[in-house]
Design goal:
It contains 7 helices and no strands. Helices cover about 75% and strands about 0% of the residues. The protein is mainly alpha-helical.
Length: about 140
């Protein structure tokens, strides 16, 4: 997996991180903070991966989804408590500390949105007939 820097994805990741921090610090509702943040988290990770690694879209998306699910499963088993890290606020915020089935759905939706965005922004390729010229 070759390394490369992709400015567009890095800027998106930076913007998403800022938005996630803003949500965490300023939004105290029952929809945007718990679910909006969980939809944005895998999109942020996806953009971060695509910022630095030359990896196919589907592989990056699937990897991010697996990592998101893994982190949620670690919450189910209270890994922060088992490791004695529950008192470190930053770690608790980054990894979370409460398992919720709805979070898995939110992560899936976030990865789905990332894939949709990739599809919508994909540069169309010329068909073989267009390359040869349609000599009609």
């Amino acid at each position: 997996m070759p390394l490369r820097f992709e400015k567009r994805y890095f800027l998106l990741a930076s913007g998403l991180l800022a938005l996630e921090i803003l949500i965490a610090l300023c939004v105290h509702d029952k929809i945007v903070r718990p679910y909006g943040g969980d939809v944005l988290a895998p999109i942020f990770l996806y953009c971060l991966v695509r910022s630095f690694f030359c990896v196919p879209v589907k592989r990056a998306a699937f990897s991010v989804l697996l990592v998101s699910y893994l982190i949620e499963c670690l919450q189910y088993f209270h890994v922060l408590n088992l490791l004695g890290w529950q008192r470190y606020r930053l770690v608790a915020v980054l990894l979370g500390n409460h398992f919720e089935w709805a979070d898995l759905l939110a992560y899936t939706g976030g990865v789905g949105l990332a894939l949709l965005a990739e599809q919508l922004t994909k540069t169309p390729r010329a068909t073989p007939n267009e390359l040869r010229g349609s000599g009609g």
